[in-house]
Amino acid sequence: MRMKGKSVINYNVYAPTNVICMLRPRRQDGQSIIQEGFKVNPSVEFSEYTDIYGNPCQRLVMPVGQVTITTEVEAQVNVTKPIPTPVPAYVMVGDLPDDVMHYILPSRYCQSDLPEINALAMQIAGNFKPGYDQVEEIRKWIHNNVTYQYGTSNANTTALDTARNRIGVCRDFTHLAIALCRNLSIPTRMTVGYLDKLQEMDLHAWFEVYIGDGWYAFDAVQEQTEGYRIEIAHGRDAADVAMITQFGNATLQSLHVEVELLDPDPASLPGQNAH
């Protein structure tokens, strides 16, 4: 499926402000980038580097005044990878690959080592088979017990806050899921990007867990994990995947996001049946 994503971000800048942007898509298995664009108005020079998680990052200095950053991507993507049958087996900590070990550790927004998080993880999933069954129970519990509502959390809200308040947005749903899964020694990371199935279009966050021999996506905002996605970045939590990190005096004024599927889904065409 060909899919397009576009983000338009407007800032008021009061003093020259250094920023790190994480807005260009990853190049990886499951998504092939057909074309993309990154534009800053007024035009400024920028440089690029790849962070420790393989995410493409852009560095620039926003000048004083109104600054607009526009990014566009068109990619060939697969539908969200389904969980195979039989489900992948839980991987014991001693058998995990070295490069996923940091995803079972607590992080800034995901305090997986706290007793309160442990109590909630055991309440939700303690009686289920380790691995996929536990992750899916956690995902469903968050979807059913945490209210999705804008303006109820901020950049300082943690998984523990969401466990207590049970309200937030996709970032908060994801942080709580990560903390609960890591508490059960399941490697879990935060992923951000575009999703076609959102009631209110925005850049989206979901979580991925390492089970069997690979990573699988889970989305606590959705009734069930589905849809087409373009991944921009992944990391331990929001501190690693912020769309813009600023070092100076600037205020975000607006964020406009568009997502479009360019090819019809055969299952949705007249006379077609999904198999």
From TrEMBL:
Gene3D superfamilies: 2.60.40.2250, 3.10.620.30. InterPro entries: Bac_transglu_N, Papain-like_cys_pep_sf, Transglutaminase-like. It comes from the Bacteria. Pfam families: Bact_transglu_N, Transglut_core. Residues 162-222 form the Transglutaminase-like domain. PANTHER family: BLL5557 PROTEIN, BLR5614 PROTEIN-RELATED. This is Transglutaminase family protein. It comes from Dyadobacter flavalbus.
